Amino acid sequence: MNKAATTTALTSAPNPSTFGQPVTLTATVAAVPPGAGTPTGTVSFFDGATLLGTATLSGGVTTLTTTTLSIGSHSLTAVYNGDASFNTSTSPIVTQTVTSAAPAPTNLTATSATATIGTDRLAHIPRLSATLTVLSSGTPVPGQTITFKVGTTIVGTAVTNSSGVAQLNNATVDPQTIIRAGSRYTANFAGTSAFAASTATATLVLA
Q1: Are residues 110 and 198 in the same domain?
Q2: How many whole angstroms separate alpha carbon 206 and alpha carbon 202?
Q3: What is the residue range of 44's domain?
Q4: Total domains in the fold of the chain
Q5: Per-residue pLDDT tens for 179-195?
Q6: What is the mean pLDDT of the chain?
Q7: How many CB atoms lie within 10 A of CB 92?
Q8: 2 Cβ contact list (under 8 Å, min separation 6)
């Protein structure tokens, strides 16, 4: 049996959107005459060559909601993967614009850490770690500098990775500084034009 041709249409809403705001992508797949019937199967949604996700058709329609689009313009497409009766098809490109709007509120969390006294009489901290996300959606914020402090002493900085995690390894500080700081350390994000500042504290114990 010859498969029928299809067309796939894609819409996005809202467009434009602000960073971290949920964007709903809707794909509609239809048969091309003289083909008839309702296509079934799945649709894959792409941001350029990056797969955003795959969803199952119901009545020829499916949706996908994403919060991962970065600030800027995105070329979105929907690809119908076909079924036993219908051929694949790809939608025209939809340009989604994501703006920063007001600086997005952020959430910074820090992980408890342990320090040990070395032969140099300094407290050695194997790792300090903090995670930066958009407050409203939990979306990771990569490429941002986090400053780690014990009391008022800066022990170092690290840049958030694709998961929003910044890790500072092998930091050193005077043990008395940890004691005076109440056995805690602070992670600070100074903020940018797109992301609001935030601060977190966590336990730093002398072992």
Answers
A1: yes
A2: 13
A3: 6-99
A4: 2
A5: 999 999 999 999 987 78
A6: 95
A7: 11
A8: none
> What integer pLDDT is reported at residue 113 of this predicted model?
98
Per-residue pLDDT at 44 exceeds 90 = yes
Q: Which of 50, 78, 99 is the last residue of a domain?
A: 99
DSSP letter string over the chain?
A: -PPBPEEEEEEEESSSEETT--EEEEEEEEEPTT--S---SEEEEEETTEEEEEEE-BTTEEEEEE--PPSEEEEEEEEE---SSB--EEPPPEEEEEE--SPBPEEEEE--EEEEE-TTSPEEEEEEEEEEEETTT--B--S-EEEEEETTEEEEEEE--TTSEEEEEEEEE-HHHHHHTTSEEEEEE---SSB--EEEEEEEEE-
Structure tokens at 75: 């070329």
Share of the chain above pLDDT 90, in %: 87
pTM: 0.57
Q: Does 33 fall in a domain? A: yes
Report the CATH number that the domain containing residue 188 is assigned in CATH: 2.60.40.10
* Token output for 70: 């970065």
Q: Are residues 83 and 133 in the same domain?
A: no
**Amino acid 1: pLDDT:** 63
Q: Which of 41, 72, 99 is the last residue of a domain?
A: 99
Query: Has residue 162 got a pLDDT over 80?
Result: yes
